[in-house]
Design brief:
The chain is of the alpha/beta class. Helix content is about 30%, strand content about 25%. This is Glycoside hydrolase family 5 protein.
């Protein structure tokens, strides 16, 4: 086999083996695969302005595609016999990697990070670190997501309390903030139909935006402490500062000013911690609009200028034609998200997206979403890998009774949280071919879900290695474009690398 030294050196970084163009090499030995997995992932960063995007340290545009993972979640337990989260299982991350995923959005909760005010829970940090290491071993990055839904698990309607008027309903608890940071001013925990429409939840968020009792400052400090723990970790792609924040009673003000003010403060704390840490470096900060975006498909993003930091990415949740109330098409959802990202000058990444219910009925919409995700050349994280029988989402739909089997990407049998395998319709679309890292900038991208084929164009000022995920169903791939093809067999598919330069076009199709 012949490959020049540069190609082999680069191949060692992207974890592929050098082979002749168009020739598949036999699978690596277990020892060499283990050594390859041990190699650190390239550091990532974001750029704003004309080069808005996510890049690695080799100046390749990176698409982060993967799934949300809730196994470290600290959720409200609404049924005594049903744990609200399924703890990490050994095959979870290998199964994710077999779909070609290169990122997990790891749900973490402030209530577990800081159950006692001012004290970081080191046992929880160790659990997070274990998952980061496990993801890295599979070639996947981690986005640490400070998750919340309806403020936290400490807002729930007490048993026996009667909700008046009849329009109001008792509410179960959810996830997010610790008890000491939950300030509801004694307002009713009853809700109007959905979890966010509760006076107590609204008050809790209002007090957070107003920094009542210093609770916002406390989370800012916690973000600094968390960033210090992972400041030198390349497998951590970045930090999602707060999942779907509620505007509180400050509707309009929250969208434009309150969220931005908090994000700016948290970014400063994170950067200060990274600067002080040994070998620390700047990680991407993902920031979201308020929860109204998920409900209506769009809302006002934070005002541009809330931070001077450029290592940031706008990360709304693209649920148009899925769970949004507004009658938006999938295409319109993308258009609105791109418009907002452009107004902020940042890259776009969807921290959550997905469909719920019958996978067969949802298949056409899922495929449509995939086509726009490729057209807009963005990444995202499917919601969700697995949903526990006792997860608040499950119990909310079953009115507190033992729910039926939960259909996420991984089907979960209830009761007992029984492994039932991948949902094939979802797995097929989510495992389609895509460029993990493309030198310079991607210009066009199109992937065929059923055959595993892919075609893309890009441009780069200097030669580099294009890395593609190809699903196993492509068989023996026929490669057009690029030089010095290098193919590595992985569980569920292949990693293909090609050396490209200038304006490049690459297509990979089944040879059969």
């Amino acid at each position: 086999m012949k490959a020049n030294l540069l190609a082999c050196l680069i191949a060692s970084v992207v974890m592929v083996s050098c082979i002749d163009e168009g020739t598949r090499q036999e699978e690596s030995t277990a020892a060499s695969e283990s050594a390859a997995r041990a190699a650190p992932l390239p550091r990532l960063h974001a750029e704003t302005g004309s080069r808005a995007g996510i890049y690695d340290e080799f100046d390749r545009e990176v698409l982060l595609r993967g799934v949300n993972y809730t196994s470290l979640g600290d959720y409200y337990q609404g049924h005594p016999d049903l744990p609200p989260a399924v703890k990490p299982r050994p095959n979870d991350l290998p199964n994710m990697a077999s779909l070609g995923f290169n990122v997990i959005r790891l749900v973490i909760h402030w209530s577990q990070l800081e159950p006692i005010r001012g004290e970081l829970n080191q046992a929880y940090i160790r659990e997070i670190r274990e998952q980061v290491r496990a993801a890295e071993a599979q070639g996947m990055y981690v986005v640490l997501d400070m998750h919340q839904d309806a403020w936290g698990k400490h807002i729930a309607t007490p048993a026996g309390e009667f909700c008046l008027p009849p329009l109001l309903q008792p509410a179960i608890g959810w996830d997010g903030a610790p008890d000491w940071a939950t300030i509801t001013d004694g307002l009713s925990t009853c809700r109007i139909s959905i979890r966010e429409l509760s006076p107590a939840v609204t008050a809790a968020f209002t007090n957070f935006w107003l920094d009542r009792n210093g609770i916002q400052s406390a989370l800012v400090t916690t973000w600094g402490k968390l960033a210090a723990e992972f400041a030198a970790e390349p497998a951590v792609a970045g930090y999602d500062l707060l999942n779907e924040p509620h505007p509180g009673f400050l509707l309009g003000v929250s969208e434009l000013l309150s969220t931005g003010s908090f994000y700016g403060r948290a970014i400063k704390a994170i950067r200060a911690a990274e600067a002080k840490a040994i070998n620390g470096f700047s990680h991407i900060v993902f920031f979201e609009p308020t929860v109204d975006w998920s409900a209506f498909g769009a809302t006002l993003p934070p005002l541009k200028g809330f931070t001077s930091d450029t290592n940031i990415v706008f990360a709304p949740h693209l649920y148009a034609d899925s769970i949004t109330i507004a009658p938006l098409s999938i295409e319109q959802g993308f258009q609105l998200a791109k418009l907002a990202a452009d107004s902020l000058g940042t890259a776009l990444w969807s921290g959550e997206w997905g469909w719920f219910g019958d996978p067969v009925e949802n298949d056409a919409k899922l495929r449509e979403y995939a086509s726009f995700e490729d057209k807009y050349r963005i990444g995202g994280a499917w919601w969700v890998w697995r949903q526990a029988c006792g997860d608040p989402h499950s119990l909310n739909e079953s009115n507190g009774e033992i729910p039926g089997d939960q259909i996420a990407l991984w089907r979960n049998g209830c009761p007992g949280d029984i492994d039932m395998g991948l949902v094939p319709e979802y797995a097929l679309t989510l495992s389609r071919a895509y460029p993990r890292a493309a030198p310079g900038r991607l210009l066009t991208l199109s992937a065929d879900i059923d055959t595993g084929a892919i075609e893309l164009t890009g441009t780069t000022a200097k030669p580099g290695v294009l890395e593609l995920w190809l699903p196993e169903r492509i068989g023996t791939p026929k490669i057009s474009g690029g030089e010095q093809a290098e193919l590595k067999k992985m569980a569920g598919g292949f990693l293909l690398s090609l050396r490209v330069q200038d304006d490049y076009r690459v297509s990979v199709t089944p040879s059969r």
